[in-house]
Amino acid sequence: TGETPSRKRVLLKVSGEALMGDGAFGVDQKTVERIAGDVSDVVRGGTEVCLVVGGGNIFRGVAAAAKGMDRAQGDYAGMLATVINALLLQNALEREQIPTRVMSAIHMSSIAEPYIRRRAVRHMEKGRVVIFAAGTGNPFFTTDTAAALRAAEMECDILLKGTQVDGVYSADPKKDPTAKRYDQLTYMDVLANQLSVMDAAAISLSRENKLPIIVFNIGESGSFGRVLRGEGPFTQII
Ligand code: UDP
Q1: pTM higher than 0.90 for the full model?
Q2: Which of 12, 78, 140, 181 is at 20 to 30 A from 146, Cα to Cα?
């Protein structure tokens, strides 16, 4: 631990919505398998990969709080949602013969290892995919912040945020046909213009740790591998 990784090490943040496929809620098994296939290809290519998975396809604390639920309690429920997604991704990766460990920020010893940084590093050095579940383990945070945190802890070369859009746009491309995709932005651009790509905590943490972020469309088959080879479309935040 603590050594500079000889292979490239990346963290992929998979949003909960990315697992819905064409559905409006929950999990589309085919989509989970396809994403696991994309991750497997990258792992077989010799890159060390760890994942942070969201839970927004199942439960979001903020949305529940808006309807009167206690925010912290809702956030804990949201973190449990990420564990469900993590187990599904683990299953799909293992069907691809990729050794995988789920490490949870909330202790759930029957189904996941507790998150211990040095053990996570060891797993990755051995070529295992580590899925970080339960976000940061704290309410009032997001899995984007968890992704920036774990990527910094794992000394990843890059943080990839897989979403439903192929990058960061000047406006919502689904609503505004004149919206333009940025090829590159600085952390300060994102913060100053409040671009809705990741929350400010995640951007600040990445900035402090000089962790480059790439935003891309994980809904496109094979996009994870292509983006790592430098093939667009994507937005880079540096
Ligand atoms: N969450 C939390 N702390 C964390 C990460 C997540 O409380 O460190 C909760 C929060 O309620 C959030 C939910 O888990 O709404 C699901 O995570 P997120 O919304 O980040 O998932 P995504 O948008 O990536 O699907």
Answers
A1: yes
A2: 181
